[in-house]
C-alpha cells in the first residue's frame, strides 16, 4: 500500500473531526520518520512533545519488550506490580520542592488534569477552579472547560463544567495590560487578586491550574517572577497551585520540570507525553498531605499505570540521567534560537522569537507594528514545511505560531538540516505571498 491508497481508506473509515497528516509512517528512528512511500522526514513535532528521548530509543524498547514477555495487564488496583511503585518513587524524588510527595498514574494528560482537580477539591473542600486565557489542558469535558481556545477544541461540545473562572496570562508580546517588562512590575500576576474582587470568591476556589510555559497557546514564556507571585497569592488564600507540566515536563525547557526555572514548588503537578516515550501514561504528583485527601478507591482506573508504560517511564528517567538530556535541551535550544533570530532579522513576518530550552517558537504576523496575526501565512508555511520533508505542528490562539518539539536526542547535523528547511521554506512562502 502507498500513501494515496491508505489516505483513501482513511477518508472512508474515519470521521472528519480527526485531523491527520498527508503521510503514513512506516518506521521511525530518533528524529527521523520514514513514510510508507519510503520518504524520510525530520521530526520537529515529536508526536506533539512525546518523543523527548527520540523514536525507538534502545533502552525504552528493551524495557518494554522485557515487560510484555512477562504480562501486559492486571489492573494495578486488582493485582499490583512493582514497576508502578518504582516509577512513582522516581516521580516523587524528582518533583520540585522539598515536601514529601506521592504519585499515581492514569493514561493521558487530560486524565491527569481531571484527577488533579479531584485531588484539589478533596483536599480543600472547595469546588471552583481558576484557569488562564490561551491555556490548553485537554479534550475531556472538564479539561475542555479549562482550555481557552474554542475552535477546534470546544466548538459544539458544550456545556462544560461550571465553576471555572479565567484570567489573562503573562503573554508579554501581547500584554493584556498594554505594559512592558520589566517596567510593568509583573502587574499581570495581580489580575488573580483582581479576580477575587470582581469575578469569583477566593474562599470558594480549590485551585489555580497553570502551564509554567503555555504550550498550545503559543509557547508563551512568562517573566521569571510571575509564577512565584501567583503562588504567593494562592497561599494567602488557601488555594492549591496546580502546575500542568504535560508538555513542558521531561527536559523540554532545559530542566526536568519547567517549574524549576521559576523557583516554586507546585502543590500538585501533572505530567504525561514524554514521561512514557510514546507509551500512554500520565502522572499526578503532589504534596503527600493533599494527595492523600481522596477517599480509598476514589482515584484509579482500569488501564492507569499500564506495566509496559511504567517500564518505559523508568527507562526515560535512566536515559535522562545517563545522557544528560536536560542539559542537551539547552544546547538544542541555543542552536534553534540563533537560527530563529537570524530569520527574524531577514523576515518582517516574524513578530516574535521566544522560548526556553528546546521549547522554541516563531510568532508570525502581518505587520510588526500592529502585531496582527498571520494565520494564513502560518498555515501555508506549515504545509510547505511538510512537503519539504519536515514534520511540524502549529500553536497559538490565533493559529500563527510555529513551534519546535524535536527529540532532545536529535543529532546536530539532522537538527541543522531541519533548520535549513525551515529557513529555505520561509523564503519560498514569503516570496510567493
Describe the model.
The two termini are about 35 Å apart. Strand 7 (about 205-210), helix 8 and strand 8 (about 240-245) form a beta-alpha-beta unit. The chain is of the alpha/beta class. The chain folds into 2 domains: about 5-55 and about 325-430, Aspartate Aminotransferase, domain 1 (Alpha-Beta Complex), CATH 3.90.1150; about 60-325, Aspartate Aminotransferase, domain 2. The mean pLDDT is about 95. The chain has a 7-stranded mixed sheet, with helices on both faces. It has 13 helices and 16 strands.
Task: Give a brief rundown of this model.
It is built from 13 helices and 16 strands. By secondary structure, the protein is α/β, with parallel strands linked by helices. The protein folds into 2 domains: 3-56 and 324-432, Aspartate Aminotransferase, domain 1 (Alpha-Beta Complex), CATH 3.90.1150.10; 61-323, Aspartate Aminotransferase, domain 2 (3-Layer(aba) Sandwich), CATH 3.40.640.
